[in-house]
Amino acid sequence: MTRPFTVTFARGFGTGGKEIASRLAEELGVHCYENRILTLASQLSGLDHELFVEVDEKIRAHSGFSAFLAGLPRSRKYISREEPFAGDQQLFEYQKEIIENLNETESCCIVGKCANDILRHRDNVLSVYIEAPRDYCIRRTMDNMPVSREVAEATIEKTDQYRAEYYSFYTGGKSWTDPVAYDLTINSARMGIEGSVRLILAALKTRGFIE
Predict the structure, then answer these.
(1) Per-residue pLDDT tens digits for 85-109
(2) CA angle 118, 11, 19 (to 5 degrees)
(3) Counting C-beta atoms within 10 Å of the first and last residue's C-beta, which end of the chain has fewer, N or C?
(4) How far is 189 from 19, CA to CA, in rounded Å?
């Protein structure tokens, strides 16, 4: 791998999208970023603009955000969106800055955060959307959390609604599930976790990102 590339992931709750992204990153020997981007952006959003610019320049001078992100905690818990979505444009701008910097400085996988739209005009990106039938997502959520079917259904509904509203808000009304927004859409129920990883690897080879 010479020129850095980014694989972005959008996924429905319970599809196994995060696991697929993690497995792909492991296969490629790169980092997989999700919650740590939000953690760093939250910290940076508390700075005034001049101080942020100073911190940003120092971070860029030391091989990008990756070293900072690697030292931040990564939550392994499921996040249930009980509260309604409320936009925070400043926080999103910091997330955007981090995502653009990662794309320029290292090969990596990025889960969520509208990364596919943020990087849509860049030619070193493969954008992936992971979907699956609702019953598959319910059963997977019941097994992994673990919770009852009713709780699993409610969690999926609330989380996917939150993601849809988040994506629409920060992309100017675009649909999170629009297949045209992605290079590759995968049904994880049919392909499985490993099959999905192999399919993405094949797409990366087709694009010339890996040999």
Answers:
(1) 556 788 888 889 899 999 999 999 9
(2) 110
(3) C
(4) 13
With residues binned 3-state (H G I as helix, E B as strand, rest as coil), the percentages for the chain, rounded to 5, are: 55, 10, 35
What count of other Cβ atoms lies within 10 Å of the Cβ of residue 112?
A: 23
Domain 6-207 matching CATH 3.40.1280.10: the answer reads no
pTM: 0.83
Residue labelled with tokens 């954008």:
127
Q: How would you classify the pairing of strands 108-111 and 6-11?
A: parallel
Whole-angstrom distance, CA of residue 35 vs CA of residue 131: 20
Residue 198 has which token pair?
């192999």
Alpha helices in 45-79 (DSSP H): 49-61, 66-70
Query: pLDDT digit string (tens) for 6-53?
Result: 999 999 999 999 999 999 999 999 999 988 887 777 777 665 555 555
Q: Nearest CA to 150 among 160, 140, 142, 158? A: 142
Segments making up each domain of the chain, as ranges: 6-207
More confidently predicted of 119 and 72 = 119
42 vs 144 pLDDT, higher one: 144
Dig out the tokens for 92 from the structure: 């999103």
Nearest residue to 183 (alpha-carbon basis) of 52, 1, 6: 6
Per-residue tokens: 57: 């320049």
- 29 SS3 class: coil
